Structures are given as structure tokens and as C-alpha cells.
Amino acid sequence: MQIKDKVLDVPVIQGGMGVGVSLSSLAGAVAANGACGVISSVNAGYDEQDFKSSPFKANLRALDYHIKRAKQIAAESTKKGLVAVNIMTAVSHYEESCKTAVSAGADIIISGAGLPLNLPQFTKGTDTLAAPIVSSGRAARIIMKTYKKHYDVYPDMFIIEGSMAGGHLGFGADDITQGKTQTNDEILSDVLAVIEEYGADIPVFVAGGVFDGKDMAHYVNEGAAGVQIATRFIATNECDASDTFKKAVVNAKREDIRIIKSPVGMPARAINSPLLERLDAGETFTARKCNGCLTACKKDDSIPYCISRALIAAVKGDWDNGLFFAGSNADRVDRIMSVQELINEIITDYRLNKSDI
């Protein structure tokens, strides 16, 4: 498929997962197999020697390195894939992260966790595409109107993320648990209507609870250009996360997947773990030194734990102290496979289920 001047052989986006779960090894392998690999920018330099003393410099340096490395991995393949970066609007140094992604040659900046209303400031006139994440037609309309008014552009693509996704969610916790959120189908329909209203031609990818090629065929038949899948890519050989994290996904049962309250004030979906059980029992802990990674974090003793430290513990394989984000279908993941095998399985299943109309 064609997205402006870029070609994507496989209309699948590997969701961005932080901290450190999707860096260059995973994103590069996905792009080398013709899909869109995504590097998560949040604390990308968590493993750098100077991360604790100079997190800002470490993160930008690591982000630049991982983008370039992922593109090098992809360039060794004859398939046409893309390398994107997920930069949450809630991260500190959002502007600097976007500029780094553009200068390093990222094909796309994917941005959510709030409305990325100034994203075209960094992408307009460059080779990097702007891809806002939205969870409603209303959000899509605000972005369309704002981009046109202030930058005379529209988004290059939209990713809609439903309430079945992993990690931080753009819905109220009660609405999620009580089933009051819009379905992916409803959000897709609303966003497509907004795009049509503006007379634009913008591809839309569906995320949140998307598991296989059958799901992909369903959304494409409903008007989507493709899908974004995250959790299944954790259980791949090339994923940058620890084997402990991969096994946590493979071993997860339906009852292990739960909605939690993040210290940044948003609901999130994660796999039950010793850390969450201790928090349920009233234990709290904070970072000795705050890295200032998220603007929404209160950075004081009122937060029950440091989410950055917990996510870093997870990616490093610390089961007792880690926070393991995962999507609603994590219990359906039953084994670890290669990225190539996973993408081939999704596309084979998609072709068997897609509409011929």
C-alpha cells in the first residue's frame, strides 16, 4: 500500500511499547518483513550508562541510535517496510524527541496519550509522516480542524485505538470495566465519516484488541487501511524485552489481565504481578531521583510508585518489581515465535478472510 510517497508491503503496524520493549531489534525485524516497525521513545535510553545522571541526553542519543539501526536492519531486506517512532504527547521534551526522530530519518511519528495538535510543526516539509492516535471521531475532528487551520495540512494517517489495548488507555476506568466505551467498529466509522466530511483521503489503522488476520480482514472490510498489533509482538524472538516479559505474556491467563490506575492519572491494562499485588495491599514506593519522564506525573510523595522504574524493571526481567503492560488478548498468546512467522501467519489468515467485494 502507498501512504503518500512511502510504500508498505504489509499493512500491519507493530505497536510502540515502552519502556524498551520495542526498540531497534523488534522494529527493524518488523520493517525487514515489509510491515511498519515502531520504536517507543519513552525512556529509550534506559540502559545507557548516563541515564540516571542525564536522562534527557541519554534518551535522545538512544532514540537516534535505534532509529538508524532499525532502518539499517530493514535496508538489508528486499521487502518494503517502514520504521516509525511512537512519541507520547505526555512525555517531557516532546519537541526535542520529535526533532530527533525527524533528523534520524524516522518514516512516521505516531503520537497519542493526548492530542498531538502541534505535530505538523515538526513533520511538515520533511520526509516524516504525522500519524495521530485517536479514540473517537471527536478527537479526529479536532485534529483535522487544527492541522488545517494552523499548518494547512491534514494528518498523513490516523491510528484509532480502542479500549482493549494494553498500556495507558484513552478512556475512563469505569467505562472500560463496565463496557461503556465505543467499539473499534464504532470509532472507525466515526473517524472515516470525519475524513469524508473534510473531503480528505487519509488511511486509518485500527488498534486495540486486534489479534489475528481474521480481525484484520474484518476492519479492512469496514474501511480501514490496516491494523496495529502490539502484544503479540512481545512474544517474538526479536523483541527487545527480556525473556521474563515474553513468558509473562505467554503464561498469562484471562484472569491475570487487569485494569490498573497509573500514577500519571490514566487507566492502564497490565498483567497481574507481585508488584501489583503489593500495591493492592497498600505498599508504596517512589523513585529516589525523578527523571521527569512524563509531564502528567505529579513527581511527589502522593504517587504510589514510580511507573518508569516499574516498566524498566519489567523490560529487564525483574518479575517481582516489574509492571508488565499487555493487551486484552494476551491470554491468547501461546508461544514465542519469530517476527517473520508472526507476520506470515497474520497475512495468511487475512487473505483467507478478506472480502472480495
List its salient traits:
flavoprotein, dioxygenase activity, Aldolase_TIM, four-stranded antiparallel sheet, 357 residues, TIM Barrel, alpha/beta, Probable nitronate monooxygenase
Q: What does this 3D model show about the protein?
A:
The protein has 357 residues and is α/β, with parallel strands linked by helices. The protein folds into 2 domains: 2-241 and 334-353, Aldolase class I (TIM Barrel), CATH 3.20.20; 244-325, no CATH class. 37% of the residues lie in helices and 15% in strands. It is built from 13 helices and 14 strands. The strands form 3 sheets. It has an 8-stranded parallel sheet with strand order 3-11-10-8-7-6-5-4. Strands 9, 12, 13 and 14 form a 4-stranded antiparallel sheet that branches. Strands 1-2 form a two-stranded antiparallel sheet. Helix 5 links the parallel strand 7 and strand 8. Helix 2 (55-75) packs parallel to helix 3 and helix 5 (137-151) runs parallel beside helix 7. The radius of gyration is 19 Å and the shape is globular. The two termini are 18 Å apart. The mean pLDDT is 93.
